[in-house]
Design a protein that fits this description.
With about 280 residues, the chain is of the alpha+beta class. The chain has 2 domains: about 140 residues, Beta Polymerase, domain 2; about 100 residues, no CATH class. Helix content is about 35%, strand content about 35%. The chain contains 7 helices and 15 strands. It has a 7-stranded mixed beta sheet. The radius of gyration is 26 Å and the shape is elongated.
């Protein structure tokens, strides 16, 4: 029975089950075009998590896939604790539960190489592409070995895109640093809207993102207030342009110790005022 990933995953998340998506469905989330008909997850084998897993799946009539007709089977805590890996059919589709993956290990061994994914209205863990390739190599099944070539191409494309993004970010940072030093007005698009900004501080925000603190003089604003100091994430800035216009210096509200910045790379000196 073909699995409905968009149904099984929210059910597991809703039951607070600790699991990591692996296998063919994980490959599809990473961009694979291959077709698969079951959902593979590695589950944490603590007593509490096994209890949650069993209770969560109970309403969906789990039974062993491919077992002889009439073979008694009940997916309960004792069954899971005395077993390890289970190939199941449920009313939501086929689901393979792995307590341990050959050549890789249990949940805790997979966890460090997993990423949070948002899909189907929920957030869950999916094995990273690097680790997924390792899993398929360890399985050594013909279909897994065939999939490796495609996954490696996807991995190379992701690495290339990441390298390219880093290069763009470095160039944006260099341009903004120079604009701050020369007190040049900049223009760019942010959240689809043109902004005209006096750059005040460039650095790494407390959330770990490269960011610009700037005084927006003109342009659109999702907050409804255009003319004020704002924090812009560099990853959301596009079509950056340094204009020939210069501004007088730091705005009165400019703060050398901006609490939103974890690291300051370039900033304007605080405005001197007469006493």
């Amino acid at each position: 029975m073909s699995a409905e990933l968009d149904q099984i995953i929210p059910v597991l998340v809703g039951g607070n089950v600790h699991f990591i998506l692996v296998g063919g469905m994980a490959a599809i989330l990473h961009g694979s075009a291959r077709v698969t008909f079951d959902v593979d997850v590695v589950y944490e084998r603590s007593t509490e998590n096994v209890r949650r897993l069993v209770e969560t799946l109970k309403p969906y009539s789990p039974c062993l896939r491919g077992a002889p007709a009439g073979l008694p089977f009940i997916l309960d805590e004792q069954t899971v604790k005395h077993g390890l890996n289970f190939t199941l059919t449920t009313t939501l589709g086929d689901l393979d539960l792995f307590g341990e993956i050959a050549g890789v290990g249990p949940y805790n061994e997979v966890l460090p190489n997993s990423d949070e994914v948002q899909a189907f209205g929920v957030t869950f863990l999916c094995v990273g592409l690097d680790r997924l390739i390792h899993m398929k190599r360890a399985a050594r099944r013909p279909k897994d070995l065939e999939a490796i070539a495609e996954l490696r191409v996807i991995l190379e494309e992701e690495e290339h895109a990441a390298t390219e993004a880093e290069g763009i970010a470095r160039e944006l940072g260099r341009i903004l640093t120079e604009a701050i030093q020369k007190q040049s007005v900049v223009r760019f698009f942010y959240n689809g809207q043109l902004r005209v900004v006096e750059p005040q501080t460039y650095g790494i925000s407390t959330s770990g993102n490269e960011a610009l603190r700037g005084y927006q003089r003109e342009g659109g604003s999702t907050s409804g207030t255009a003319a004020r100091l704002k924090l812009f994430e560099l990853a959301k800035i596009s079509k950056l342009e340094v204009t020939a216009e210069r501004f007088a210096g730091a705005r009165p509200e400019h703060n050398l110790h901006d609490c939103a910045m974890g690291e300051v790379i370039a900033t304007l000196p605080r405005l001197k005022t007469d006493r």
